[in-house]
Description:
There is one protein chain. By secondary structure, the protein is mainly beta. It folds into two domains: 24-114, no CATH class; 120-258, no CATH class. Helices cover 8% and strands 41% of the residues. The strands form three sheets. Strands 12-11-10-9-8-13 form a six-stranded antiparallel beta sheet, with no helix packed on it. A four-stranded antiparallel beta sheet has the order 1-7-6-5, with no helix packed on it. The two termini are 29 Å apart. It comes from Labedaea rhizosphaerae. Pfam families: DUF1684 (PF07920). This is DUF1684 domain-containing protein.
Amino acid sequence: MDFSTQWQEWHAKRERVLAAPHGWLSLVSIDWLDDEPRAYHDLPGRWWSEDEAAVVEADGELSVDGEPITGKRRFELVESGPGLMIAAGDRVVELARRGGYVIRIRDPKSPTRTAFEGVPAYEPDPRWRFTGRYLPFAEPEPVTVGAVVEGLQHVYQSPGVVEFTHDGRTHRLTAFNGPDKTTLNILFTDETSGVTTYPANRSLNVPVTDDGEATLDFTRATNLPCAFTTFATCPLPPAGNHLPFAVEAGELWPSPEN
């Protein structure tokens, strides 16, 4: 299978995941919980935060992994970690910890999802695929980054940096843990940011071999959820993760101009 065909298959899968019934395009709301038990929108139950945990009180109308929530349930989540999905009929409520606890409704009927026609992208060009090196730290280092939500910060553990060469210059990018043990994730901007690509950030998953060889395929650089919805709390790239050249590869800014 040639480079272009592989990319087309990857891109089609990426669009299917985005457009899944409870994927990122299905978000319709975002609310931060406080210490007062209350209902939100037309959701069943009451929701609040208490002693580093989120509390949900319901009478069986909500469930987690198929188990109904009856009475009060406490959930203590990791800061900036993955959310917990709570079923509410044909909708899902994502509970996450972002500074405080936040709930987001994922509704298959979201206008963003139903109007989705795909993600614009540069044509795949193998010249934007680089072989670099993963340089791990002796110990993971905490890295604090800003967010698209004013005043919010995310704290992640960085296992190291990825180094690669472009046009005779070497560039280093702070990496975070990726979706599996053999993959890192890099948040970055470049000289296309705010011009043809989303201004705040793009994301790149970087496979790494046991001997530290890293593959940076910028044709697979993706938008974070905040490029599609105002209900996301996406992190900004770490300081120094701006590439001083135009990465004319990967997903474009999903705006009317494109």
